[in-house]
């Protein structure tokens, strides 16, 4: 696929505004360092080569994306400043285990093998393959079974390509990018495109005129659950992050972030 998928307990002082001056005075008189009242910092490792989850905004130079916005929102809930550290994907867990960073956020899918080394947060996104077709064909193309004997567009050499090969009697049309496959679909070059669900949703959201012509079918195939990762000894931080995620989902902030990147797709 075009982008690879599947990919601490410090008390804060937020809200103690009324007595801030008194506390600081006491700290100075008692010989305490002002650094004792410094903002909490959480170092988060990422690999920003996985849009729309994490990528470098070429205009600002900052890491951006759905997962990055979600991490920032979690930090806000915890009263903490988030400091992103860019690493290669395979260096993130070693950096976390060594104590260089406290958390990993880079499209980590939940696997039994990885569970032996790290703790996972609650799932924040379920990914996988999905079908997108035109509105005219949506009633006839709802599942992989419906693609038998039809023309399927895919990005060459991807898991989507492999999935298409398993469809009986299908004609497969390949493209260098998923975006090219979807554009071809919009002019009836194929009956449907198989692609990674979040990438398809992102393309449809970023190109609303194109998205308006299409239907992103709801079923997800080969599902992967995404979560943040932590060291085994950081269960307290994991619990804090889970509580923050739950609050973001209950107060509607998660939906705002989701819709920014994926729309209703």
Automatic annotation (TrEMBL):
<feature type="domain" description="Ionotropic glutamate receptor C-terminal">
    <location>
        <begin position="41"/>
        <end position="264"/>
    </location>
</feature>
<dbReference type="InterPro" id="IPR001638">
    <property type="entry name" value="Solute-binding_3/MltF_N"/>
</dbReference>
<dbReference type="GO" id="GO:0030313">
    <property type="term" value="C:cell envelope"/>
</dbReference>
<dbReference type="InterPro" id="IPR001320">
    <property type="entry name" value="Iontro_rcpt_C"/>
</dbReference>
<dbReference type="GO" id="GO:0015276">
    <property type="term" value="F:ligand-gated monoatomic ion channel activity"/>
</dbReference>
<dbReference type="Pfam" id="PF00497">
    <property type="entry name" value="SBP_bac_3"/>
</dbReference>
<dbReference type="GO" id="GO:0016020">
    <property type="term" value="C:membrane"/>
</dbReference>
<feature type="domain" description="Solute-binding protein family 3/N-terminal">
    <location>
        <begin position="41"/>
        <end position="265"/>
    </location>
</feature>
<comment type="similarity">
    <text>Belongs to the bacterial solute-binding protein 3 family.</text>
</comment>
<keyword id="KW-0732">Signal</keyword>
<protein>
    <recommendedName>
        <fullName>Solute-binding protein family 3/N-terminal domain-containing protein</fullName>
    </recommendedName>
</protein>
<dbReference type="InterPro" id="IPR018313">
    <property type="entry name" value="SBP_3_CS"/>
</dbReference>
């Amino acid at each position: 696929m075009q982008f690879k998928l599947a990919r601490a307990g410090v008390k804060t002082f937020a809200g103690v505004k009324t007595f801030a001056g008194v506390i600081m005075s006491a700290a100075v008189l008692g010989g305490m360092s002002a650094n004792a009242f410094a903002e909490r910092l959480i170092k988060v490792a990422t690999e920003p080569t996985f849009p729309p989850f994490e990528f470098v905004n070429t205009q600002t130079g900052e890491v951006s994306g759905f997962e990055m916005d979600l991490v920032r929102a979690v930090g806000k809930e915890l009263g903490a400043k988030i400091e992103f550290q860019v690493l290669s994907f395979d260096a993130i867990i070693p950096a976390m285990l060594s104590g260089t960073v406290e958390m990993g956020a880079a499209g980590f899918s939940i696997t039994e093998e990885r569970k032996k080394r790290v703790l996972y947060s609650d799932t924040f996104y379920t990914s996988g393959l999905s079908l997108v077709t035109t509105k005219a064909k949506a009633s006839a193309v709802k599942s992989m079974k419906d693609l038998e004997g039809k023309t399927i567009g895919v990005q060459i050499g991807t898991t989507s390509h492999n999935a298409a090969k398993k469809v009986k009697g299908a004609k497969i049309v390949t493209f260098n990018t998923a975006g090219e496959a979807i554009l071809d679909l919009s002019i009836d070059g194929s009956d449907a495109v198989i692609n990674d669900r979040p990438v398809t949703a992102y393309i449809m959201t970023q190109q609303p005129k194109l998205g308006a012509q299409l239907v992103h079918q709801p079923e997800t195939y080969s599902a992967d659950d995404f979560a943040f990762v932590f060291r085994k000894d950081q269960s307290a931080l994991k619990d804090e992050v889970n509580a923050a995620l739950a609050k973001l989902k209950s107060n509607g902030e998660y939906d705002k972030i989701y819709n920014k990147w994926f729309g209703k797709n």
